[in-house]
Design brief:
Elements (H helix, E strand, L loop, with lengths): L20 H23 L9 H8 L4 H19 L9 H11 L2 H14 L4 E8 L2 E8 L10 E7 L6 H4 L3 H11 L3 H10 L8
Antiparallel strand pairs: 1-2, 1-3
Helix pairs in contact: 1-3, 2-3, 5-7
This protein binds fe (ii) ion.
The site of fe (ii) ion has 7 residues, from helix 1.
């Protein structure tokens, strides 16, 4: 069974002005779709056909870079759409306590996400993740993912240029500031934390 391009969980104008409908139309409708299509084409008729996306990522890591890139990017983008929200959300009590413990405050966490995202060289992803009961900010390069690395990813922000160039040109810090200001989906992060295992790409 082929993987599907999941629908955006909000209207395409919901993230404005941080992320415009035009950006979403390309980022979701073209970039994410291409990663899905290429993953499906690469696994068609192989033993990975019909396996969950997480299994495809694990199987391809270190052995098939082309498939890995497309499968991991398919997962990362699905996770990213849910990491953002058009409506105001807030962290659960459990997540709030862990944020206070690890970063001091949500504002400080946002500041550190902005700094890590802005400082990340070239394309990649910045993550809020949990491992062993502790929160941390992680970075992955290019199409790499935290999906299969023993973390429970809570949120991610895409720092590839295609995520922000139409709206903010080369000003990645402006995109990060706008996204972290009021577009992070703390409800999604709280659900991921409460579940205790990594999110699974809907199939
Ligand atoms: Fe992207």
């Amino acid at each position: 069974m082929a993987f599907k391009l999941i629908d955006l969980p909000y209207e395409d104008t919901a993230l404005e002005p941080a992320v415009s409908a035009e950006t979403l139309s390309f980022h979701h409708g073209k970039h994410h779709k291409t990663y899905i299509d290429k993953t499906n084409a690469a696994i068609a008729g192989t033993e990975l056909d019909g396996k969950p996306l997480e299994d495809v990522i694990k199987a391809a890591r270190g052995s098939n870079q082309g498939l890995f890139n497309n499968a991991a990017q398919s997962w990362n983008h699905g996770f990213y759409w849910h990491s953002l929200a058009g409506a105001e959300t807030s962290p659960s009590e459990e997540l709030s306590a862990m944020i206070a413990d690890a970063f001091g405050s949500t504002d400080e966490l946002k500041k550190q996400l902005q700094e890590r995202g802005a400082g990340h060289f070239a394309s990649g992803w910045v993550w809020l993740a949990e491992k062993g009961g502790k929160l941390s900010i992680e970075e992955t390069h290019d199409g790499d993912t935290l999906a299969d690395q023993g973390f429970n990813p809570l949120l991610t922000i895409d720092v590839w240029e295609h995520a922000y160039y139409l709206d903010h040109r080369n000003a990645r810090p402006k995109y990060l500031e706008a996204v972290t200001k009021d577009k992070l989906n703390w409800s999604f992060a709280s659900e991921n934390l409460a579940r205790g295992t990594a999110w699974v790409y809907p199939g």
